[in-house]
Amino acid sequence: MRAFGSKNWLISQKGLGSSGSVSSVLLSDPVKPPVDAPDYPPELARLPPGRHGLPREFVSHNQRERLIAGLAEAVSENGYAGTTIAHITRHAAVSRRTFYEHFNSKDECFVAAYDSVMSELRQRVGDAFDQKEEWPRAVRAGIAAMLEFLVAEPHLARLSMVEALVAGPVVVERYDAAIQSLVPYFAAGREGRSAKVLAGLSPTTEEALVGGMVSLISRRIFADRTEELEALLPDLVEFTLTPYLGSAEAARVARA
Amino acid sequence: MAYKSTTRPLPGRQPLSREFIVRHQRARIVTALAIEISEKGYRKVTVADIVKRAAIARNTFYENFRSKEDCFLAAQEFAMSAALERVVAAAGELEEWPWRVRAGLAAFLEFVAEEPALARTCMVESLSAGPAAVKYYEESQQAFVSLFRLGRDVTPHGEDLPETLEEAIIGGVFWIVYQRLAAAEPAAVPELLAEVVEFALTPYIGAESAREVAAP
Known about the structure:
The complex is a heterodimer of chains A (256) and B (216). Chain A contains 15 helices and no strands. Chain A is mainly α and 256 residues long. Chain A is elongated and about 60 Å long. Chain A starts with 8 loop residues before the first helix and ends with a helix. With 216 residues, chain B is mainly α. Chain B has one domain (10-214): Tetracycline Repressor, domain 2 (Orthogonal Bundle), CATH 1.10.357. Chain B has helices at residues 18-23, 26-40, 47-54, 58-64, 68-92, 97-114, 116-124, 131-149, 165-182, 193-205, 207-214. The longest helix of chain B is centred in the middle third of the chain and has 25 residues, at 68-92. Chain B is elongated. The two termini of chain B are 23 Å apart. Classes of the chains: A mainly alpha (256), B mainly alpha (216).
């Protein structure tokens, strides 16, 4: 029943038969799937055409999620600029008319996809962070969760970190806000530091750390080297902890 | 000018001198492109928009550029090479590496404040303007990387620093600068100097020494 182990949760969760949101479906099962879990066959995940006796609301919700998944697939194949509504409806296996029942444009569908990926990512990072008592460990866990998600979902990684930048001002604004929303995780590191350490932190320290981290990540995704992301963990941890802990201690946590 | 040997020349066509650009209307066209892009994003800008904004004839555009893409590459080349040139010139006047970094960053921030639309275009839209633009952007960033990397020689733990440190520092500096531009506050960019200097130097020379250079 659960499709969490598949490579592409947006797509495979089509078959879950749940009307919950994508993230609530996923988060109801925090057990990590085996890495080599087979892909959920998309044909099994699709709702059969014709009369199926399912409530209208369910069908509609399902269609919307299929369209979002279809867009993610189409964008990873053609890039945002090259993606047409025909590509999206083909991947989603729905009609053009159905597309327009849910979205007014490709841009609108992209925004929906972007938001659903980001809410999932935010949730995972937040959960991982909250599970650790000590702040340096929490930062490490949060970054690890982010990298793990991006590596497991290369299409969605590209959609959220690369294609978002070319999808026009509306998405760019959301992208900026999403990145800035990571600032408090780092700012929490100021708590309990000595006056000397605090004097060394400027108001923009966290912004710069987040920006540096994201640039390292997105450049690898852009270059289709998403699989290298997990190896970045120690570098990113050391980089982000150094202003608070000093480089020796930051390196220790990073390489633990 | 000890930096000369360590910074690579910019790839691709030779950078055009500012004088040349001004003389040939290219600056006007390139600036128009940058302003149009910052308003609607690269994809939605047309040659007609650029022509209108620059108040030139369509023919004049095509005398200078083959296409929108070509014009974008020229904008990017102009901005990146001008920024790098200024950074290298400013840094080269000083002896000690931390002070060179400070001078280089100051020159960079001043350039951004002077040319906000161009700077924003290069920082944000390079990814959407096709593979040539991306390649150029990556290679230009590499030139900044080598400027920072010299810092590894002045610190005893230089060899232990993460391989990606310079990339992360540049990404961080670009990000906070970009945030000011996105908020339409280009005048605030040079005021970031002390903060970015401290941020960039701390991993190499420690917070205390970094602060002395950041706010002397």
